[in-house]
Amino acid sequence: MRVEIAGDGTPELAAVACLHGNEICGKTAIERVLAENPDVERPVCFVIANEEAIAEHVRCIDEDLNRAFPGDPDGNTHESRLAAEMLPHVRDCAVLDLHSTRSHPKPFGLIAQLNERTKRLACATGTSRVVDVSYIAGGLIDHVDGVAVECGLRGTEQAERNAERILRNFLGVMGALDTLSEAGDPELYRIFDVVEGAGYEFVGENFVRVETGTVFARRDDEELRADQSFYPVLMSTDGYKDILGFQAERVGKLSDV
């Protein structure tokens, strides 16, 4: 794990990358910002988490780090020990956690705890959508006041550019960098169910409403039809091993919640 502190004093903000070793857009964004030796106005902790997985070009070594928190310093897996080592660095910070995905090309935020602080953090990313993922257990943002951002399609230069823009905007809105930035007011979605199963072809589009009775996935001669209307979130043909993705409802503007 690589940890760098910019500024003097105890960090109040944290930017985290590579909880998954094959999602390097956040690492690129952090390194580009740090290369400028920024004169920060609030101390920031930058974390590039799973360096072993990065070196192996894999998501994880033993288990998903983003499901290993709070971890165990004497744990049986690399990620369990790493989670326990990492959490004290960011526990008291407002956290931006940078990811990439196989499901959707445009950035969107994820929050697990809906409170005034996390609402502000979600707005600070500048993304147009944020998803309440409290239905799903686990994740770093269950243990901190933070927002995760899926910055774009995994392995693309566009995801790297998106991650850098989001990081700079976040640091600007949160008062750490003197840079052009603007808080948004994203549309809030809330996950209410998971679509289980493997080998399905997703034939819908994320964040586009699926009406009741509509086919949204196929596997051989089997079709999945919507029992009720929903918005697909993190759905993709090959994004997960055992699930297709998640069903969500559209709540409204975050500022109105």
Write a concise synopsis of the structure shown.
The protein has 257 residues and is an alpha/beta fold. Helix content is 21%, strand content 29%. The chain folds into two domains: 2-173, Aminopeptidase; 190-252, OB fold (Dihydrolipoamide Acetyltransferase, E2P), CATH 2.40.50.
The first-to-last residue Cα distance is 37 Å
- Residue stretches low in confidence (pLDDT < 50, at least 5 long) are none
Average pLDDT figure: 97
| CATH domain topology of the largest domain | Aminopeptidase
Total helices: the number is 5
CATH superfamily of the largest domain: Zn peptidases
Q: Total strand count, please?
A: 13
Instruction: Give the strand order, joined by hyphens, for the main sheet.
Output: 1-3-2-4-7-5-6-8-13-12
**Radius of gyration, taken over Cα atoms and rounded to an integer in Å:** 18 Å
Number of domains: 2
